[in-house]
Amino acid sequence: MPRVPCITEMGMGVDVHGKDATKAARRAVSDAIRHSSLGFFRMLGKTANDMFVDVTIAVPNPETVDKDAVAKELPYGTVTVNAVKGGLEIPAEQGSDAIIIANAAVIVSLDKE
Asked: How far apart are CA 94 and CA 56, in angstroms?
């Protein structure tokens, strides 16, 4: 069944120490949804569990993102997480540490009936 995108939210998350792309990604998703309350489902005769949530995370090393951990940031719906190359890595002045910045796009869709 075709889906209709209803909401697009964007967020940014940072891991200041430890180069943890998953931590930055989780924070980016949290930032994206923090100011949202999707009450329109009731108007359509649906619940929040009827939604499909497609998350795209952009980080310098997408293969290091724990997609299951990121998906747990979303409380409802069928969640899919895709990690792609992007974001930003700012090397520390000393040592091997770096700041990792992740960007998230969270798209909520419903089945078209």
From this structure: 31
pLDDT digits (tens, 9 = 90+) for 79-110: 999 999 999 999 988 888 999 999 999 999 99
3-state secondary structure 36-101: CCCCCCHHHCCCHHHCEEEEEEEECCHHHCCHHHHHCCCCCCEEEEEEEECCEEEECCCCCCEEEE
pLDDT score recorded for residue 81: 98
In the prediction, which pLDDT does 104 show? Answer: 98
CA distance 113 to 111: 6
- 3-111 homologous superfamily: Tubulin/FtsZ, C-terminal domain (3.30.1330.20)
Nearest to 60 by CA among 8, 15, 30: 15
Closest CA to 35 of 106, 84, 101: 106
In the chain, where are the structural domains located?
A: 3-111
The model's pTM is: 0.92
